[in-house]
Task: inverse folding
């Protein structure tokens, strides 16, 4: 991959790492006057610059809520979130500004269906007036080629497979040179084979850019395979329950999946998740009864 | 590697499948042609049955046979009046339709993006919308100085409400993730409108246009029949039919009806063509 390192020099390995996210005692209550759903309760975590932080937890526990707060899609009720030491949102400013330093890759994908992959990727730099139209399109084509999508650059999202679309979407995020990539179950509902290819592609991109990732998933093997740390969340309201450190050196490849160390880590995470899922289930039963 | 293997494996069957699909496509065409031919033959026999059987079949016996219709058509085609009817109707439809698009699309988008505008304009809009266009005719005849203008106004209304409601619905149902994605990449409000809201609303704009076009034709023809010829606001295909009815020419009535069918088909084809041109991402495969 030596040839493609040049594309994103500013964030190449060795460059000063950026994108440290600090979540301090964040609480989010939806609709406090009405239904009053406490989605996140006094949740804290520190994500180091350049870290891949995987977030797992029972369905509906508040993972997306936390991500939306970092992205600035909705406000928080209490606590603070910092990015590289700067306040994103806090008591005096509950809603973080949206910005290209934190780009989101959505559950189910959100490429613009009316733009070709290349136009999709070029959108960010173009809309911010950062690059001329020509430079933006050139750079987009280059970055798509780097992930093996050269011949699909002129296709519409509806014409490519979901795996390709997702790869293009991550490229669309990376072209903005974000400090943090916020991924909300990007590979949900993908078959195992496609997923494993996507994982390797993502790891390759990560080795090139070292961008901080806040990566939500339900798939524990995915979490261990990709992450530096796996944060297991409690059932709603969401708090950090357990942090699994993944001390497996990079670069990683799929041989890792069959190693004993990998299996043990998955087991460790799975125990914690299972406990919470069970709690969520019985709580649900109690609510229904 | 796996892909290449399946590729070569499929190419032999692919060719066969291609020919088969071409045949199937042709079969579809043939079926369509056969159905039309059969209809014409049955119609011809049905309307001529009175001569053979000595008695008229119910309903179909009253309709002139296709050969007679064609003869009548051949008779009117060289006439200036027939083409003038086409011209007058098309002119009215286009005037009403285009003005409804020009006013309706921005208005619908405005309602979609601005909550204040929605709160102010939507309630009166919803009260006026259920009124059928033809119920506006008397008021509009009184209000506008000429017949032509009142026809134009009524046709405008017919398409306007449909277009606005479609544009509004389309623009309001844009996937919020697309808006958020754009915003998180640094799009301004202006960019969001031109590069996200507008293209995302195009499909419903064209749906609105297609339905609106149908309504416009209905209204124009009805208005032409009501207005009944004369120098002002007269003529058109609607009047052509009315005139044929007054003159007792059954064949010409049918000619007029088919002319309208063709005119409507041409209009909706034009919209479909434009839609394909404006929305290349929807013309996949
Ligand atoms: N706008 C809202 N208003 C009220 N409650 C909400 C709203 N959005 C989410 N919730 C609730 O907040 C809780 C957390 O939702 P969230 O989407 O963050 O969960 P999640 O962990 O991402 O779940 P999943 O894994 O299924 O995506 C859920 O119980 C949900 O019902
Ligand atoms: Mg979620």
Result:
């Amino acid at each position: 991959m030596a040839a493609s390192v040049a594309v994103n020099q500013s964030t190449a390995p060795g460059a000063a790492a950026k994108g440290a996210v600090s979540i301090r005692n964040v609480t989010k209550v939806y609709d406090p006057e009405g239904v009053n759903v406490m989605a996140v309760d006094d949740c804290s975590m520190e994500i180091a610059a350049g870290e891949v932080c995987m977030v797992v937890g029972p369905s509906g526990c508040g993972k997306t809520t936390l991500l939306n707060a970092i992205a600035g899609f909705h406000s928080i009720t209490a606590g603070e979130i910092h990015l590289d030491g700067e306040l994103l949102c806090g008591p005096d400013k509950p809603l973080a500004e949206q910005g290209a330093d934190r780009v989101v890759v959505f559950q189910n994908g959100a490429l613009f269906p009316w733009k070709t992959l290349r136009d999709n990727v070029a959108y960010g730099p173009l809309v911010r007036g950062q690059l001329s139209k020509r430079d933006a399109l050139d750079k987009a084509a280059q970055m798509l080629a780097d992930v093996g999508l050269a011949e699909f650059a002129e296709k519409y999202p509806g014409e490519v497979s979901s795996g390709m679309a997702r790869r293009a979407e991550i490229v669309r995020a990376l072209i903005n040179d974000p400090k943090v990539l916020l991924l909300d179950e990007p590979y949900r509902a993908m078959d195992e084979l496609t997923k494993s290819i996507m994982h390797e592609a993502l790891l390759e991109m990560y080795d090139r850019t070292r961008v901080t990732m806040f990566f939500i998933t339900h798939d524990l093997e995915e979490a261990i395979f990709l992450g530096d740390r796996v944060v297991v969340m409690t059932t709603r309201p969401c708090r950090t329950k357990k942090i699994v450190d993944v001390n497996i050196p990079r670069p990683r490849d799929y041989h890792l999946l069959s190693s004993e160390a990998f299996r043990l880590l998955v087991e460790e995470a799975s125990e914690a998740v299972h406990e919470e899922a069970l709690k969520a289930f019985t709580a649900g039963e109690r609510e229904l009864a | 590697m796996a892909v290449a293997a399946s590729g070569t494996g499929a190419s032999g069957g692919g060719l066969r499948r291609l020919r088969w699909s071409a045949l199937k496509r042709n079969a579809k065409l043939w079926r369509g042609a056969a159905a039309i031919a059969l209809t014409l033959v049955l119609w011809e026999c049905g309307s001529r049955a009175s001569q053979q059987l000595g008695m008229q079949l119910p309903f179909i016996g009253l309709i002139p046979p296709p050969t007679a219709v064609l003869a009548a058509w051949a008779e009117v085609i060289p006439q200036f009046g027939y083409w003038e009817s086409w011209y007058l109707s098309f002119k009215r439809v286009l005037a009403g339709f285009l003005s409804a698009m020009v006013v309706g699309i921005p208005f619908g988008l405005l309602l979609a993006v601005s909550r204040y505008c929605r709160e102010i304009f939507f309630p009166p809009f919803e009260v006026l919308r259920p009124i059928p266009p033809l119920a506006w005719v008397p008021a509009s005849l009184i209000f506008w100085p000429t017949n032509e203008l009142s026809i134009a106004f009524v046709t405008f209304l017919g398409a306007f409400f449909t277009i606005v409601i479609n544009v509004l619905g389309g623009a309001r149902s844009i996937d919020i993730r697309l808006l958020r994605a754009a915003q998180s990449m640094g799009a301004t409000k202006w960019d969001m409108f031109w590069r996200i809201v507008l293209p995302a609303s195009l499909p419903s704009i064209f749906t609105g246009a297609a339905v609106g076009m149908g309504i416009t034709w209905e209204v124009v023809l009805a208005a032409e029949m009501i207005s009944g010829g004369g120098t002002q606001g007269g003529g058109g295909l609607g009047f052509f039919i009315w005139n044929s009815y007054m003159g007792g020419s059954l064949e010409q009535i049918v000619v007029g009806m088919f002319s309208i069918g063709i005119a409507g088909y041409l209009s909706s084809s034009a919209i479909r063509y434009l839609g394909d041109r404006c929305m290349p991402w929807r013309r996949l495969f």
About this structure: The mean pLDDT of chain A is 86. The domain at 18-101+179-288 of chain A is CATH 3.40.50.300 (Rossmann fold). The longest helix of chain A spans residues 260-288.
